[in-house]
Design brief:
The protein is mainly alpha-helical. The protein has seven helices and four strands; from the N terminus they run E-E-H-H-H-H-H-H-E-E-H. The strands form two sheets. A two-stranded antiparallel ribbon has the order 1-2. A hairpin with a 2-residue loop joins strand 1 and strand 2. Helix 2 runs antiparallel to helix 7 (159-203). The longest helix is centred in the C-terminal third of the chain and has 45 residues, at 159-203. The two termini are 22 Å apart.
């Protein structure tokens, strides 16, 4: 067992090398702080369980409305139904929310990495969904128009139909913005945890 003494600025620093076979080595390993655990705890400041619950509820809401609208609009589906936006963003949100909830129970830096990746996909998906819903608001409602000579001729539909259609799309735009905020929060805290991990590895 070797020990070295260095002095700097009136302070003596004693460095002792403990062999792996020494019983004190196991005690030091058990009491040493675990970088991965500390980083996951830093990520938990974003309240991943709450964010995950929001995303899971939003995902099932998207899927439920997608099924209902697909049935009602089967003769002439609108853009959102035809694109399947309710389903692919719904399943993505449920997956992302499940991973976020899992990070509350498992202290794994790999789970944080997965959260960052899925959160990035959710951000892209929500932005695409907002565009799709916005485009549909500006279009004629399929079941309130008729194709004649290659052109869509609007029919006289009740104003309540337009109010319902535009209201649903506006509601889902707001829901997508909420989902966007939760994904950004998870990505920001996850990115901070990953940067801190790289810094910790460099110091160690």
């Amino acid at each position: 067992m070797a020990a070295t003494v260095t002095e700097s600025g009136g302070v003596k620093v004693i460095t002792e090398v403990v062999p792996q076979s020494d019983p004190r080595a196991a005690q030091l390993d058990s009491t040493a702080p675990q970088p991965s655990s500390a980083l996951v705890k830093g990520f938990r400041k974003a309240q991943p369980k709450a964010l995950g619950a929001i995303q899971i509820v939003s995902g099932f809401t998207q899927i439920s409305f997608g099924i209902a609208l697909m049935i009602t609009e089967s003769p002439a589906p609108a853009l959102t139904v035809a694109s399947g936006v309710y389903f692919w963003i719904g399943f993505l949100l449920v997956s992302s929310g499940s991973v976020l909830v899992e990070t509350e129970r498992r202290e794994s830096i790999r789970m944080v990495k997965v959260c960052c990746i899925i959160s990035g996909l959710v951000i892209l998906a929500t932005l695409a969904a907002v565009i799709i819903h916005g485009v549909e608001i500006g279009q004629h409602i399929p079941w309130c128009s008729m194709r004649e000579g290659g052109k869509m001729t609007p029919l006289n539909c009740s104003p309540s139909v337009y109010i319902l259609n535009h209201g649903l799309n506006s509601m889902f735009i707001l829901l997508c913005l909420l989902e966007l905020c939760t994904a950004i929060a998870a990505l920001v805290y996850g990115h901070k945890a990953m940067k801190q991990r790289d810094y910790t590895q460099m110091v160690l």
